[in-house]
Design goal:
six-stranded antiparallel β-sheet; 2 domains; Uridine Diphospho-n-acetylenolpyruvylglucosamine Reductase, domain 3; alpha+beta; disordered C terminus; 7 helices; binds flavin-adenine dinucleotide; Uridine Diphospho-n-acetylenolpyruvylglucosamine Reductase, domain 2
Amino acid sequence: MNAPIHPIEQLHVALPDLDWVTETSRIARLSQDFSWFSPVLKRQLSGKTADAVVRPRSEDEIKRLVALCARLRIPITIRGSGTGNYGQAVPLQGGVVLDMSGYNQFLWARNGAARAQAGIRLVELEKETRTACNMELRCMPSTFRSATLGGLFGGGFGGIGSINHGPLAARGNVLGIKAITFEEEPQVVELRGPDALLMHHMWGTNGLVLEVELALAPAQAWQEHWWCSRRSTTRSTSAMPWRWRPASPSARSACWPRPSPAT
Ligand SMILES: Cc1cc2nc3c(=O)[nH]c(=O)nc-3n(C[C@H](O)[C@H](O)[C@H](O)COP(=O)(O)OP(=O)(O)OC[C@H]3O[C@@H](n4cnc5c(N)ncnc54)[C@H](O)[C@@H]3O)c2cc1C
């Protein structure tokens, strides 16, 4: 008698058309985020690795993957760009890392708002809004060049621009989201206004965010500068990006250090 095949193999067999990452080293890398900033988390999370990583490109692919994972009881960990620094994108019990970077279409920008798929990088989203209507995102984490829209919504707080507009969760910043539930028969829901925030800062634990609609602000001519210092305690050089609007120094927003590669 043949041995029963592992649930992960069942996934591969049932969904061969999906974009699977198969190299062990890439699976290990995509199973980590910036939690290594913390010596405690680094110790606790080292070696936590997914059994598989998949990079869906369409809602249909996400739906089929989520449904089968629910049926086979395979844990799913959602990943944007993995710049979160508390281990929110690290799979604690194997399973599948669902890498959202391929689900990244800009949808529209008009009337002071924009909508895009969750895997779009914030820097790309802002390029689109500037081109479409000369508007910018209201708040940006200092990781905006690599971080995704879904990652900011699922695990972020705010950033550059928050002095003027508050954190992402402040009223009127998030206008709506489209999300999918983790069930054998997944439901796709649209949540508007305050209801959208039910999935904000939930780290993908109560569903997967497919699209986010944000309010915008008039575009400013920001200047970006790098500030480097040698810290006496660590003897390391730290580089901090600053982005500010020269016309109004009172609106300056400081931000955190930009991440360097995890390895
Ligand atoms: C040096 C440094 C500076 C930072 N500065 C800031 C800052 O200024 N402001 C700030 O708010 N944060 C900051 N962060 C934290 C982090 O960069 C941001 O929160 C960023 O927006 C996360 O985006 P990401 O795409 O990397 O998400 P990830 O790290 O991949 O994911 C973050 C969380 O969201 C979940 N998630 C991702 N996509 C989805 C989705 N589609 N649906 C549901 N859940 C999802 C993940 O499972 C995870 O729990 C910083 C981090 C570092 C390392």
